[in-house]
Amino acid sequence: MDSLAKSQENDGRIKTGETLIPGVRVRIARSNDDPLDAGNAAGLLVDGNGTILGCTPAAETLLHRRADDLCGRRVRDLLADPGRWRDVMAQRDGPVWEGRAVVREGGGGESEVMFRVLPLDRGQPDRQASRFFLLGAPWALVLKWRQDHAFMQELFLQERVGFAVFDRELRLVRTNTQLLPYTGVPPDLSGLRLAEFLWPEDARVIDEQLGKVLTTGTPLVAMDALVRTRVDPGRGRIMALSAFRLQESDGRVMGVTALFTDVTEQRGARERLDLLHRVTAVLGNSLSVAETTQDLADVLVPVLADLAAVDIAEAVFAHEEPGAEHQRHHVMRRAAVAGGAGAGRLPTGGSMRVDVGGGLRGRVWPRLAEQPSADAEGDTGADAWPGSLPGPGIHSAMSALLRARGRLLGRVTVWRDGDRAPFGADDLDLLEEIASRAALVVDNARRYARERHASVSLQRSLLPPMTTETAAVQSSSVYLPTDTAGGVSGDWFDVIPLSSARVALVVGDVVGHGLQATAMMGRLRTAVRTLADLDLEPDELLTHLDDLVSQLTVENSSYENGTQAPERRSAYDSFGATCLYVTYDPVSRQCAMASAGHPPPALVAPDGTVGYVDVSPGPPLGVGGLPFEPVEMEVEPGSVLALYTDGLVERPQADLDEGMAALKSRLAAADVLARPLREVGREVVADLAPSPLSDDVTLLLARTRGVPAQDSVMWVLEPDPAVVADARALVVGQLSRWDLDELVFTTELVASELVTNAIRYAGGGPVELKLIRTTTLICEVSDPSSTQPRMRRARATEEGGRGLFLIAQLTERWGSRYTRHGKTIWTEQTLPGAP
Questions:
Q1: Burial group, residue 458, by CB count within 10 angstroms (0-12, 13-18, 19+)
Q2: Which residue among 147, 177, 205 closes a domain?
């Protein structure tokens, strides 16, 4: 009767009706745990026939019957299945037996009860007991207690989770065998504090958290705690610490219970995933190889290593294809380092020949030692590092190759120092994964840089010199290519010398970015120069240019609708463009211009006032079918014309007028009339260009010049052959006054031939003869006829047809241009002593 060892006299009385049965005392255990313990369960005293002799008050409560109603009844009458009692009595030879049954309650209900049968007065071993004591409790209550009891038992038997009970002084009372199965932890921890076998700092952190739980009663759930032992502090483990307070039913605090779960591997895996996520998030934000490699080095320190270096193949910086990945030796340059003060020991720059070995995988050096000398004796047991270590305290390293699309782009190397654990196989796998992702980003940056370099080189080769000097203008330009993913844009500018000392200023902007936009820009610039050589008026030139762009668009559309599939075009590809074409005559001071969808030029007058020319923008090139309106105005010498592209005046989330107002204000404050145009242009662009550049920025400044009145002369001649002699005399006299006697013979011959042809084919209109002295001697003859002269080779027997041929042989250049009132034939000769 061990289960009834503890008793109290009063609680042991058994009721029979309203009285207590004398001489019958049941020793009832006082237990707050097992519902079937005598101190907790309902009790029935039963004889050998199953008749109830007495009951406890708990039985009255359980069965909802009074004692006088229970006493004298047979137990079977209380069961929903009376045959169940026979099954119970069949086990009466045992010392104790248990079972479950459904009982009828006094109120008519039923409930499932778990019972335990205890024989009371078995005398001799071969004699059956004549009385029994039945203990009963609700089955649900028993089941819950047994589940809780099994949980507690299994908890202390767990091998994957550490379980500990601390008293109110935070001394260990009980632990399972797997609390902290590490080197330096005593086998018996009872009565010890954590600080007696754990690293003091780690023990202090855990005690502090357990103390909070003990004081406040607030549970602690899965807090990461570093656990190191005093014996081996270099090898720490990460524990997920959970704790809750233990207290009696009356609220008295008994201590605290803690669960220690080793999550070192899980946390390591999570940190690796977090690092991969950070690498993915950080890399790719820049299309610069230098910035990408620096981002890679920075993201590795200090999460994975204490020191990191990224080496990139020299061919990448030279915009060439790097070597194949199976090639063993490569020339590399250290592109980026990270590691705080230690990074200074790994200077960037400089080329080095690298042997990457025969394999494509990286390598790990868990324990480093510098490369031993040839006469070194013995084996240190460390891994030989090829070369000198980057600094003192370095004890482990690993390296992974940056490979993409069959090319070896470089390598990334990391080191650890101090008390950190050496690198292992998992770390190398992580670095390999990071390197594979980084290699694609580096390769994308390399390919972008290569294409951008090609685009910028092509574009710069197609653009004129940044500064020019002509008789008409002094010019200076500033061009900044964009630095976006789409590549450079199609901005262009040009300063084109025209006939008779005139000049053309051009600024254009091709829609789109990249090589296609650059190629389109080159075609348009060539077309503009060709059309400008015809001396067309600005509106006529833009009309021809518009036809060209429209034709290119049609050709591209026909190609895409053909049988051959074109290369996939990007969102930046287009054939549209804007253009501003301006001509200036230094003799007449007349300036003519027309615009195809381009912003108007700014004009800085000699008095310093700044304004925009009122020129109609017209449709962009490629629209077709709409005219371009020309504008003519007089521009005084010393004025400055500012031609630009929209990249200079457009701002994100700002109106175009704001940018143009800013340009006008900046030109007014720049003292553009007195200072060198090159300085002014750089300052204006530096102040107004947005950062970062989303579009190319172009600014062309041109300071106008004038031909002095004494350097030009014009005569109007009657259409009479007799005036040819007068024309020769006028030319001879003017050249003598200009001290150009060396040019008298050729100029007299040229003027005579041109005037003769003009009189012959002018149709009766007046003939104008003009001489202009600039850096060359210009001779012009104008007449009202629109018939263009044509040079041909005369036969041996012909008397005429040799005039233009002689002119072409005697002059540097000659040509003709249409005017609004006819045509002009012009020639140019180099002045004596000119370079």
A1: middle
A2: 147
Which is more confidently placed, 535 or 4?
535
> What pLDDT is stored for residue 485 in this prediction?
57
Q: Check pLDDT > 80 for residue 74.
A: yes
Residue 127 lies in a domain: yes
Residue 289's closest CA among 412, 138, 166, 448? Answer: 448
List the structure tokens of 127. 């004699």
Domain end, chosen from 147, 178, 195, is at 147
Task: Supply the pLDDT for residue 565.
Answer: 46
Establish how many alpha carbons lie within 13 A of residue 142's alpha carbon, considering only the half-sphere containing its beta carbon: 17
Q: Is 670 helix (H, G, I), strand (E, B) or coil?
A: coil
Total domains in the chain come to: 5
CA distance 523 to 179: 79
Distance CA(249)–CA(786), nearest Å, equals 119
Alpha-carbon Rg for the chain in angstroms: 52
Q: What is the CATH number of the domain that holds 98?
A: 3.30.450.20
Shared-domain flag, residues 329 and 412: yes
In a domain, 377, yes or no: no
Q: What is the pLDDT of residue 178?
A: 60
Give mean pLDDT, residues 692-701. 87
**pLDDT at residue 537 in the model:** 93
- For residue 513 the two structure tokens come to 């970015």
pLDDT of residue 457: 78
Tokens of 793: 């080779």
- Hey, what are 223's tokens? 């807090």
Quick: pLDDT tens for 639-656.
999 999 998 998 777 788
Quote the domain boundaries for residue 414: 267-371+384-453
**Contacts by residues 545-549 (CB-CB < 8 Å, ≥ 24 positions apart):** 545/579, 545/596, 545/621, 546/596, 546/619, 546/621, 546/622, 546/623, 546/624, 546/628, 547/624, 548/524, 549/524, 549/575, 549/576, 549/577, 549/621, 549/622
Can you read off the two tokens belonging to residue 785? 């006829």
Same structural domain, 365 and 304: yes
pLDDT higher than threshold 80 for residue 798: no
pLDDT at residue 71 greater than cutoff 80: yes
3-class state of residue 680 by DSSP: helix
Confidence of residue 181 (pLDDT cuts 50, 70, 90): low
Instruction: Note the maximum CA span of the chain.
Output: 171
Contact (CB, 8 A) for 605 and 636: yes
Domain assignment present for 590: yes
Span 489-514, pLDDT tens digits: 788 999 999 999 999 999 999 987 77
Cα separation, 503 vs 468, whole angstroms: 11
